[in-house]
Write a structure and sequence with these properties.
The chain has 447 residues and is of the alpha+beta class. The chain has helices spanning 11-23, 40-44, 63-73, 89-97, 107-114, 116-125, 141-151, 174-192, 249-265, 297-304, 308-316, 396-409, 419-426, 429-432, 440-446; strands at residues 4-7, 27-33, 47-52, 77-79, 101-102, 155-159, 169-171, 197-201, 207-215, 221-233, 236-242, 270-278, 284-290, 333-340, 342-343, 349-350, 353-354, 357-359, 366-370, 377-378, 385-393, 411-413. It binds adenosine-5'-diphosphate.
Length: 447
């Protein structure tokens, strides 16, 4: 087993990985930017190395500095967390060339899935259902119009290099497509340096259902059930739960088998997630595969009892999966709320600042993954997510009750947060009845 792992990340996910390493008796190295000197991950790791100034491009995204830190400290593996370099195939390849194990898939696997239009093409070849749309990327707006006319409006224009809901626009007719295509490709160029675009039929009011995959180096590939991530604002997840209220055992098996097939089609290894859109008629379509650990992984951990970070480390170490598909039992219900430093009454504007009072809920089956503490100054430089509140109970209704109690106890002072917004969401009758889709929040805000 590795004796030392460097965590190329910050915030709660860095802390999450450090904790898993500690339990496995693996030494840890934190890297931090100048503004993160006092951050929790910097303090918790066995060693910590400053890798540059606050802007991510000069620190958490700087491959040379991170590799140098690993070499200097003698770390023999790197965990990338999510975001930053986690889906950067060049980084995975450089790690390999430097004899440092990248905890995740190979760069080649990332390339196959990371480019979303190419992933679509691969899935089509392997008979995985995808949303009707362009075969791969579209050549130009004229090409997009032709395809849109064939599949019918509305369509959604998406960036091949996309992520985080960026570079995505809906078009209800040709005029909108002409206009939105330009907007979306400019946004994609600015965000990802790549304006390769593709289009899909816009599925009305779908559920976002994703399957957690684990695959070892010996061809063993399993899924750990689904997560329902339909609670979204601007195509970004806000709350996630497992299992989904929309999925029965039969559909779970059907979708799970296809998710495993999708992963197997590129001989995927390590942890990954296959994302689908599901409509009311139980038809589902692949939208993308994420080749990393995800923010919402804890809900799967709670219902399966499997520690996904430890599994990632073990797989990268060359261990065989200890579970076959039939060993995976999904029991009870888990819900996660993302707590962000933002102001819902001001358009969800990020609200960095100093936390001057903090009470974190606790109790049976209540988990808070976070890197904040009282007195912590949230820098304005990074993502606004400051904590994840996860609850587990024997069924969905009890989990909602527990979440209600826990969220009511969560007090953060000094900054604005979305805690009250989350409280309102989970007390909404339709949410309680499990009747929601990706349009839920938007409809609620327009009421
Ligand atoms: P990103 O990688 O930027 O997160 P995804 O392709 O995963 O983008 O899509 C994010 C969300 O956007 C989905 O969960 C869904 O709500 C919405 N979306 C994506 N594609 C479609 C589509 N074809 N029809 C309707 N909604 C879609």
């Amino acid at each position: 087993m590795f004796n030392k792992i460097l965590i190329a990340n910050r915030g709660e996910i860095a802390v999450r990985v450090i904790r898993a390493c500690r339990e496995m008796n693996i030494q840890t190295v934190a890297v931090y930017s100048e503004v993160d000197r006092g951050a929790l991950h910097t303090q918790l790791a066995d060693e910590a190395i400053c890798i540059g100034p606050a802007p991510a491009k000069d620190s958490y995204l700087d491959i040379k500095r991170i590799i140098s830190a690993a070499i200097v400290t003698g770390a023999n593996a790197i965990h990338p967390g999510f975001g930053f370099l986690s889906e950067n195939s060049k980084f995975a390849k450089v790690c390999e060339e430097c004899n440092i194990t990248f905890i995740g898939p190979t760069g080649e696997m990332m390339d196959k899935m990371g480019n979303k239009s190419r992933a679509r093409e691969t899935m089509v070849k392997n008979n995985i259902p995808v949303v009707p749309g362009s075969d791969g990327a579209v050549k130009d707006v004229e090409d997009a119009i032709q395809i849109a006319e064939k599949i019918g409006y509305p369509v959604i224009i998406k960036a091949s290099a996309g992520g985080g809901g960026k570079g995505m626009r809906i078009a209800n007719n040709k005029d909108e497509l002409l206009h939105s295509f330009k907007m979306a490709s400019t946004e994609a160029k600015n965000a990802f340096g790549d304006d390769t675009m593709y289009i899909e039929k816009y599925v009305k009011n779908p559920r976002h259902i994703e399957f957690q995959i684990l695959a070892d180096n010996y061809g063993n590939t399993i899924h750990l059930g689904e997560r329902d991530c339909s609670m979204q604002r601007r195509h970004q997840k806000v709350l996630e739960e497992s299992p989904s209220a929309a999925i029965n055992d039969e559909l779970r098996k059907k979708m799970g088998d296809i998710a495993v097939k999708a992963a197997k089609s590129i001989k995927y290894r390590n942890a990954g997630t296959v994302e689908f859109l599901l409509n009311d008629s139980e038809e589902f379509y692949f939208i993308e595969m994420n080749t990393r650990i995800q923010v919402e992984h804890p809900v799967t951990e709670m219902v399966t009892g499997i520690d996904l970070i430890k599994e990632q480390i073990k797989i990268s170490n060359g261990d065989k999966l200890q579970y076959a598909q039939e060993d995976v039992k999904i029991e009870g219900h888990a819900i996660e709320c993302r707590i962000n430093a933002e102001n819902p009454s001001k358009g969800f504007r990020p609200c960095p600042g100093t936390i001057d009072f903090l009470h974190i809920p606790s109790g049976k089956d209540i988990r808070v993954d976070s890197a904040i503490y009282c007195g912590y100054k949230i820098p304005p430089t990074y993502d606004s997510m400051i904590a994840k509140l996860i609850v587990y109970d024997k069924d969905r209704q009890n989990a909602i009750k527990k979440l209600n109690s826990a969220i009511g106890e969560f007090i953060v002072k000094g900054i604005e947060t979305n805690i009250d917004f989350q409280y309102d969401l989970i007390n909404n009758t339709e949410f309680i009845e499990g009747k929601y889709n990706t349009a839920f929040i938007e409809n609620l805000m327009n009421k």
